[in-house]
Design goal:
The protein has about 425 residues and is α+β, with helices and mostly antiparallel strands. It contains nine helices and eight strands.
Length: about 425
Amino acid sequence: MKKTIMTMTTVAVVGLSSAFFSSNVHAETVNNLKDKQEQIQNDRSEVKANLSEAEEKISKVLVELETLNKDIERVNDALKENKAKMDETEQSISKTKEEVEKLEAEIADLEAAIEKRFEILKERMVSYQKSGGDISYLEVVFGAQSFGDFISRVSAVNKIADSDAKLMEEQEADKKEIEEKQDKVVDKLDNLKDMKAELEDMQSTINEQKKQNVEKKNSLKEKKSELVTMKEELQIKDSNLASLEREVKQNISSATAPPAQAVSSNRSESSSSQLSTLSSEKSKGSSNTSAPTASKGSGGMSAILNAGNRYIGNSVYVFGGGRSASDIARGRFDCSGFVSWAFSQGGVSVPASTSGLSGVGSKVSYSNAQPGDLVFFNTYKTNGHVGIYLGGGRFIGSQSSTGVAVANMNSGYWKDTFKGHVRRVR
């Protein structure tokens, strides 16, 4: 009986010890899992922060890519337009050369005719000298032997005199025509020189635009490469995060809660995660709706000076641009087209050519220049470029290499080509 009681007591003690040991082990496992869970949550917060930063960078890159694509498209359009202008100019040069050659041929014919008349007159003078020396027409007439001879001599003298007079008139008329044609040739050649200079400037512009296009394309490729790398890194991080999250959930579920509760917990956490994601996306969406909008300027000089601001960094130089609604909407201007459009924004009408603008208003000295005055530059020809003075040695205009931009006329290229020509429109 005593042995039996002792045996039961031993079994009870062993049973209690086993239960106590099992409970301690279980508690220790749960604590370790909770510590691990806390660490994973911290790691997850850091990964989420990195993911958020990566998404923000990707968003910025996408915006830059879109901007680059628009810039490239704009430059490509400008290249086509300028190439068409260049072809048109080359045709004009060819046509002008033909006109010059035709004028030179006509001049050669006239000079030959003048030389022929001169020989006739010279022969006639020799004949006069041989027949009568320096005898005048009157001596010939009054030397008649009869009335009939007198009439014959008068008629002959009149014919000779009329012929000589006609030859002289033709001679003078041809000389005058030669002078006029020579003046035309000079004008044509001057225009040809200007056209060649404009063609060279146009070629320089196209080369500069091609260079910009290449640079932008290279930048686009680099941005694409960076974007692909970002996406790959993001996918790896996201995959690692998902695996880690599943493992932690499974361990916690098996250690602390029945399957049903674990599923419920998982659903709860999943819902919480979805709400967090939706909240984040909503926050991002709301932040993107606050993009600034351009405001319209007031009338008068303020509108003229500020009209081009919205095109700075968002335009391209096109020969003949700025004279249609389509060009203006797409920011396509040449220098005079931009100036004419900018003044129209302030209710002032001015010509859309540098030659026309160089004669408007009154000329003022550069020392007295005021914002809104026109400033001219001798680029490929005198007054080949024009802009609107802003003050402080700065002007705004459509430059061939930049499109609409503010430039400094007190240094560099613009200082070298500015010769003090300033005009005040008002």
